[in-house]
Amino acid sequence: MELIYIRRKIDIYHFDCYSRFYSQYPSGLGENGQLLMKYITGKKFITVLATFLLLGIILSQIRIEDLIATIKNIDKTYLVLGFFLYVLSYLLRGLRFHILLDKKISLTDLFHIVCVHNMVNSILPARSGELSYIYILKKYHDKSTGEGVATLMVARVLDFITISLLFFMSSLFVHDFPETFSSIIWLVVLFTALLAVFLIILLYAGDIFLKFANAVFKTLKLNKHGLVNFFSRKAIEIVDSFKNIKNSGKMIELFIISFTIWITLYFLNYTLIKSLSINIGFFEVLLASTFVVFMSILPIQGMGGFGTYEVGWAIGFVGIGLSKELAINSGIVVHIIGIVYYVLLGFYGYQYLCKK
User: Which residue windows are transmembrane per the record (predicted)?
Assistant: First the structure.
């Protein structure tokens, strides 16, 4: 019942955001607004279809008996350690938002917000659950939508820069890739490194980027379009947030926290791999499991990440030398364990928020 309530609230917030958006730009969004709603509905249908299709393909590659045997042989000690690492990552995420919001919201409140936000974001399709963070901040702490969007975007940019740097570092420590995977891995490393550089430039020279984007929109005569104006205003809010963080001297602190968050999460994956008695090194796990993160930023996601998570995991771990069956089995088991973790913490966080 609690999850249904949260889902309903996020859907209402979706509708509220779109309604206010249309009312601000009545001239440019009649037909476009209808197209946007059709796009969202179609995306949900594709999400469900992708979930069943990908799961069907994945399950056809393994024996269910082997999957059950893998689950039965899990080392419970590693599961407990993994849960503590998972909680630690939430505390660190809460601390990062605490700093991004100028310490105006307590770390305790933000920890519980992160618990709910991560559960909803992990379950709902197409990462629409990101809105839960903005909705909760607005409902319980009277923070504006702009502030919620800006702090969330800053956190996501820091995440991707950190992931890209860690992925690049891990590629220097992992050798002897299969020949077909070796060429792919270096293309991915190059792409992520370039993207990380671009995001760092955006952090430190966002004004220049905005001026360039506005000049392009003006040349293409898109500067008066309602949708472009809306996203331009949000981009200005995000760049202003970057500027405030940079001027306050918090950037290094935030980078350190972001780095610690992801090292903790990669150690979690390493711990869960050890619980399955798979003996591979930490940097191999870091490199391989990053493909799950890359899959998560695709526009189409399986419900609860099912299908897309396992595909990303299988690509990464087959690439470093695991058999196809072992890679798929371990991916399914680790995914299920992760779901148990975030559902437990999500309901705990939800109960806390209900009492406020």
Answer: 45-64, 76-95, 148-172, 184-205, 251-270, 276-298, 305-322, 328-350
Q: What is the pTM of this model?
A: 0.82
Stretch 136-163: mean pLDDT, rounded? 89
Per-residue model confidence (pLDDT) at position 71:
92
Q: What is the domain extent for residue 327?
A: 2-354
pLDDT of residue 53: 83
Q: Is the pLDDT of residue 226 over 70?
A: no
Contact 77, 277 (CB under 8 A): no
Q: Is 323 exposed, middle or buried (0-12, 13-18, 19+ CB in 10 A)?
A: exposed
d(CA 170, CA 315): 16
**Coil, strand, or helix at residue 214?**
helix
Nearest Cα residue to 107 out of 125, 123, 95: 95
Residue written as token pair 């309903």: 8
Contact 275, 75 (CB under 8 A): yes
CB atoms within 10 A of CB 254: 17
Tens digit of pLDDT for each residue in 274-313?
A: 999 999 999 999 999 999 998 887 766 667 788 889 999 9
Which residue is it, tokens 């504006």? 144
DSSP letter assigned to residue 103: T
Query: Residue 226 in contact with residue 27, Cβ under 8 Å?
Result: yes
Longest dimension (CA), the chain: 62
CA atoms within 13 Å, Cβ hemisphere of 144: 5
Is the pLDDT at 263 greater than 70? The verdict is yes
Number of domains in the chain: 1
Q: What distance in Å separates the CA atoms of residue 337 and residue 50, rounded to the nearest whole number?
A: 22
- How many angstroms separate the CA atoms of 353 and 122, rounded? 19
The torsion defined by the Cα of 258, 261, 266 and 267, in degrees rounded to 10, comes to 140
